[in-house]
């Protein structure tokens, strides 16, 4: 879901690097969604790819 919001934000705003704060400030994510993503250790890298925590074998 977050990757879709990142892609939409880039398409509509032409930003090269997107942060969670950008998504919240521009109402692409709610504060609650950002808190849940943070708790789940989900982030956005410098290529606008949503990254989750590394899985351990």
Question: Would you kindly provide a written description of the structure presented here, covering whatever features stand out?
Answer:
- The protein has helices at about 1-15, 20-25, 30-40; strands at about 45, 50.
- By secondary structure, it is mostly helical.
- It has one domain.
- The protein has a two-stranded antiparallel sheet with strand order 1-2.
What is the fold's blueprint, element by element?
Layout: H1 2-13, H2 20-25, H3 31-39, E1 43-44, E2 50-51
Antiparallel strand pairs: 1-2
Can you tag this structure with a few keywords?
single chain, 57 residues, two-stranded antiparallel ribbon, 47% helix, 7% strand, globular
- Major beta-sheet overview: 2 strands, antiparallel
What gross morphology would you assign? globular
Number of strands: 2
Spatially, the strands of the biggest sheet line up as 1-2
How would you classify the helix and strand content by structural class?
A: mainly alpha
- Helix percentage: 40-55%
Give the domain tally.
Answer: 1
Radius of gyration: 11 Å
């Amino acid at each position: 879901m977050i990757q879709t919001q990142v892609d939409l934000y880039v398409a509509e705003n032409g930003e090269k690097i997107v942060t969670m704060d950008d998504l919240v400030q521009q109402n692409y994510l709610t504060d609650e969604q950002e808190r849940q993503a943070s708790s789940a250790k989900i982030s956005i890298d410098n290529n606008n790819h949503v990254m989750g925590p590394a899985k351990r074998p």
